[in-house]
Amino acid sequence: MSGQLKGEKVYRGIAVSAGVCRGKVLVLRLTRHVVVRHDLTEDLVAPEARRFEHALARTRQQITEVQRRVSATMSSSEADIFDAHLLMLEDRVLIEEVLKIIREQKVNAEFAFHTASERYVTVLENVEDEYLRERAADLRDLSSRVLDNLLEVKDAFNIRSVREPCILVGHDLSPSTTAQLDRKFVLGFATDIGGKTSHTAILAQSLDIPAVVGLKSLSDEIASGDYALLDGYTGTVIINPTDQTLFTYGQLAKVRASLEEKLVEVQHQPAVTLDGKAIHLSANIEAQDDVPAVLEHGAEGVGLFRTEFLYINRESLPSEEDQYKVYREVAAALQPNPVIIRTLDLGGDKFVSHLQLAQEMNPFLGWRAIRFCLAQPELFRAQLRAILRASAEGNIKMMYPMISGLDELNQANALVEQCKAELRAEKIPFDENLDIGVMVEIPSAALIANALAKKVKFFSIGSNDLIQYTLAVDRGNEKVAHLYEPTHPAILRLIKLTVDAAHANGIWAGVCGQIGGDPVLAPLLIGLGVDELSAAPGVLDEMKYIIRRIKFSEAQALAEAALQSDSPSEIYARCTEYARQTAPSLFENRS
Ligand code: PEP
Ligand code: MG
Question: Which backbone phi and psi does 215 adopt, to 5 degrees?
Answer without folding.
Answer: -95, 15
